[in-house]
Amino acid sequence: MKPTKKELKQNIKYALIREHGLGLIKFFGLDPNLVSPVDLCKKLRKLENQAHEITTRLCNGFPDSTPREAEQIQDHYEKMLDHLEFKLRDYLERNQIKKQFKKINAIFINGDPRGYALKLDTETIKYFEELGEDFPHKDWGGFGIIAPDLTSEIEDKVNWISSNWKELTTGTLTDVKADLMQRGYFVC
């Protein structure tokens, strides 16, 4: 029976969040007994949203303030960003099985509000890719995206599955169907 778009969306959302969380757990060497992949992604997404809000405020400036007030406000927000970065690194460090400081220290907050705030530098990504370790999400510049918004990816997958349901269930895409089912996108 063909799942509804709502059911597909919910299943795919959970599956993608879980996959990203598992990728982060593996990359950062986190203890899977202490960290749930879904809870990890929720926590990181919350930090991402907070950091993005602050970087947007910093970018917009403080036009209604005197130069001195603007400087104080900017200092306050920069301290908030430092605190968020510390909080993220501390959380990951506390939950690691094997300490991997190079990976943790490569985390930074991107000050450009047009992109994601919580990132991993490109050099670290390249270094560990050469060792066979992939980072779950990267932007076009090769930076690691720690807490991506998966909404568009979810919509794309829902639409693709809905459009190709007949081929998935009649046998022409059975290998794809098996993969999608294994990933938890739907159950037949």
Produce a short descriptive summary.
It is built from 8 helices and 3 strands; from the N terminus they run ααααββαβααα. It has helices at residues 5-28, 37-60, 67-94, 101-105, 122-130, 151-163, 165-170, 174-182, and strands at residues 107-109, 118-120, 144-145. The protein is globular, with a radius of gyration of 20 Å.
Q: Helical proportion?
A: 55-70%
The number of distinct helices, counting runs of at least 4 residues, comes to 8
| Secondary structural class | mainly alpha
Q: What is the makeup of the main sheet?
A: 3 strands, antiparallel
- Name the overall outline: globular
Q: What is the residue-averaged pLDDT?
A: 93
* Cα radius of gyration in angstroms: 20 Å
Oligomer: single chain
Low-confidence stretches: none
The span between the termini is 6 Å
Summarize the structure in words:
The protein is mostly helical. The protein has one domain. The chain is built from eight helices and three strands; from the N terminus they run ααααββαβααα. α1 crosses α2, α1 crosses α6 and α2 runs antiparallel to α3. The longest helix is centred in the middle third of the chain and has 28 residues.
